[in-house]
Each structure stands twice: as structure tokens, then as C-alpha cells.
Design goal:
By secondary structure, the chain is an alpha+beta fold. The chain has a single domain (about 1-145), classed as Transposase IS200-like (Alpha-Beta Plaits, 2-Layer Sandwich), CATH 3.30.70.1290. Helix content is about 30%, strand content about 20%. The chain is built from 4 helices and 6 strands, in the order βαββαβααββ. The strands form 2 sheets. It has a 4-stranded antiparallel beta sheet with strand order 2-3-1-4, sandwiched between helices. A two-stranded antiparallel ribbon has the order 5-6. Helix 1 (about 20-35) packs antiparallel against helix 2 (about 60-80).
């Protein structure tokens, strides 16, 4: 069986940078090995993830997703504590074998569709960075401005995981 799976960050905050995207990629591959899901194609953007997977009918996608989201958030948050937080849930649709090439093309074009969501290389290592919080231009290193839709308090990581713009 085949499925297209997507999930996004909390409040769709673009909090996944290039390093966190690498951690998401590793976590998804690891979750696939542990749960019997084979990754065919994947892209990690700054605020969401797309995967095309193959799995046996007796495999539970929910087990794969629990592992992928929790492990990826844990790994990414080791780099910058609280930086990545996933929204609850995910979207999954099963596919016919004839639809695979169309979905592969759709996933491959994610960076063209969302050029503003390509994960960026981190500008600096800021262990206090929160999702959506950015450094103000010309401001001292301690001065941060709260981005739109950003939490005003620290983020607690649940069973979620980060996403980023890296080909899986």
C-alpha cells in the first residue's frame, strides 16, 4: 500500500532551519525502519513535511507517525531547546500505484510552490530562540522581536516533531 502523509508545525510557525530539517530526515528514516514503513519520497519545509511512503496492510501508520514526530522534535530541540513544536495530528491519504508518479512530482515541487518556506541556514546559534522569534535588524544580540503568531512564553514539546526543507 502507498500513502501521502503531511503534517505541520504548531500555528504553522516557520521554525525549521536547515539543521533541524536534517534531524527530521534522520528521525523519519529511523521511524520507518522501526515500524516497517518505507520512505519513497519526502520534503521537509520550514513549517510542514510531505512524505510518500509504502507499507504493508498490517502496518499501523499511527505508530510510524508517533515515532517520526516525537523523535524528530526531540532531536531538533537538542540543537535549540524548544525551537520545534509540531501541531497535533497529521493528514494521510492512501494512493493507488498509478498515482505514485504524480505525487512524487508534487512533493518534488514543494520548494518551487513555497520558495519562502525553504529551511534557512541558521544565522547564529541562539539556545534561547523560540519558534517565530527573530533577531531585529541592527538590534543588540539580546534584543529580539516577537514574530506574528509566536508564543509569548516558552514552548513545551509534546509528542510532536519538527519539519524542514530537506529532501528525504
Amino acid at each position: 500500500m502507498y500513502a501521502h502523509i503531511t503534517w505541520h508545525t504548531w500555528n504553522r510557525v516557520a521554525c525549521i532551519d536547515a539543521r533541524a530539517a536534517g534531524e527530521v530526515r534522520v528521525a523519519v528514516l529511523s521511524a520507518g525502519k522501526r515500524s516497517g514503513v518505507q520512505l519513497i519520497k519526502g520534503e521537509v519545509l520550514a513549517n510542514h513535511v510531505h512524505l510518500l511512503v509504502s507499507f504493508r496492510p498490517d502496518t499501523r501508520i499511527s505508530d510510524f507517525m508517533r515515532l517520526a514526530k516525537s523523535v524528530s522534535a526531540t532531536r531538533a530541540n537538542r540543537l535549540v531547546f524548544g525551537a520545534v513544536r509540531w501541531a497535533r495530528g497529521y493528514y494521510v491519504t492512501t494512493l493507488h500505484k498509478n498515482d505514485l508518479s504524480r505525487v512524487v512530482q508534487y512533493i518534488e515541487r514543494q520548494f518551487e510552490r513555497h520558495p519562502d518556506l525553504v529551511p534557512r541556514t541558521p544565522r547564529c546559534s541562539d539556545p534561547g530562540r523560540k519558534p517565530g522569534v527573530t533577531q531585529g535588524a541592527g538590534s543588540p544580540s539580546r534584543g529580539v522581536t516577537q514574530g506574528a503568531g509566536s508564543p509569548s512564553r516558552g514552548v513545551t514539546q509534546g509528542a510532536g516533531s519538527p519539519s524542514r526543507g530537506v529532501t528525504l
